[in-house]
Design a protein that fits this description.
By secondary structure, the chain is of the alpha+beta class. It contains six helices and 19 strands.
Length: 335
């Protein structure tokens, strides 16, 4: 599928714009096509001004460190927004933790620990940014972002800067009502008073458990599928005989089989197709349909075996649409 050339607002003070920018350079899987346009704003105000000037039909996708993302091999049409380090600052005041959306979970948890604020330790086990965590209601070790979020500042697709209370996000398990194209730029979290040493010990426990059970030093995308009601995704995958299953250089992790790995030169199509094979095998074995937790974005590369616009082995529902700038799968929202 051909994509009309994008003519976004140009680079200038407070904004950096790069055409055809590599996403594989920082996405955890280290694979996938480029962004049609990658935008790095200096501030939320700069981002808001840029989005106001952008053609309303142009899709916008915020991406953090890409720790829970498959970028399809045909790349991402439209604008990808990546926040700078300047929007990753964390501060504590009056028992609340204020974090820029570019901050990592471990940074937020550490700031809370140092200030004697308990309840945010689980963020130590979330490898993505605050923006992605707020958008998808990220969670680990029995807690979710919805448990601690007070409010978040959002730049909407039309360039408005709004402060949303937690209730407005409509949180459910691994999902929020934040619309496509909106970018979280800051969040405020709450906790309870605690002893820094006790908080630190819990963070250390979480870190050790992750190290022991997850393939942290591999090219991966984190948990692949959501836990179905009453089940653990990894247990269903294991029972269906998928541990260690491969497709090209894509593999189901033998250490934790709810993780997919890029062993070296896997394409995004191979990784996604392997995930679909796992879903098929789990459905056949247990009757449970696994739902993707990893977000899948962009256009599948053309394939002579399946027709233009679909990577080999991809399911039909992963094919891009016919809009001028197809972007996300039905479940796809960037992290």
């Amino acid at each position: 599928m051909s994509v009309p050339p994008l003519t976004p607002p140009a680079s200038g003070r407070g904004i950096k714009v790069e055409a055809g920018a590599s996403l594989a350079a920082f996405i955890w899987f280290r694979t996938g096509g480029p962004a049609e346009t990658l935008v790095r704003p200096d501030t939320a105000t700069d981002l808001a001004a840029y989005l106001r000037d952008l053609d309303p039909s142009t899709p916008v996708l915020p991406v953090g460190v890409g720790s829970n993302l498959i970028v399809r091999d045909g790349g991402v049409p439209g604008v990808v927004v990546r926040l700078p380090k300047a929007m990753a600052k964390v501060s504590v005041q009056d028992g609340r933790v204020r974090a820029g959306a570019g901050a990592m979970g471990i940074t937020v948890a550490s700031a809370a620990r140092d200030a004697g604020i308990a309840g945010l330790e689980f963020l130590r086990g979330i490898p993505g940014t605050v923006g992605g965590a707020v958008r998808m209601n990220a969670g680990a070790y029995g807690r979710d972002v919805s448990d601690i979020l007070i409010e978040a500042t959002v730049v909407t697709r039309d360039g408005a800067v709004e402060t949303w209370p937690a209730a407005r996000f409509g949180y459910v398990y691994r999902h929020s009502d934040l619309p496509a194209g909106a970018v979280v730029v800051e969040a405020v979290f709450s906790g309870t008073p605690g002893e820094p040493a006790v908080i630190g010990a819990e963070m250390d426990r979480i870190a050790a458990e992750r190290e022991a059970s997850q393939p942290l030093r591999s090219r991966t995308g984190g948990s692949t599928f959501k836990n179905p009601e009453g089940h653990k995704a990894w247990a269903l995958i294991d029972a269906a005989g998928c541990r260690g299953l491969t497709r090209g250089d894509a593999q189901v992790s033998e250490k934790h089989c709810n993780f997919l790995l890029n062993l070296g030169s896997a394409s995004s199509a191979e990784i996604e197709a392997l995930g679909e094979e796992v879903r098929d095998k789990v459905k056949a074995h247990s009757g449970v349909t696994l739902e993707w937790e990893i977000q899948r974005v962009g256009i599948a590369a053309p394939s002579p075996l399946r027709g233009e616009g679909r990577g080999e082995g991809l399911p039909s529902d992963a094919a891009p649409g016919t809009a001028p700038h197809p972007t996300l799968s039905p479940e796809g929202r960037g992290l």
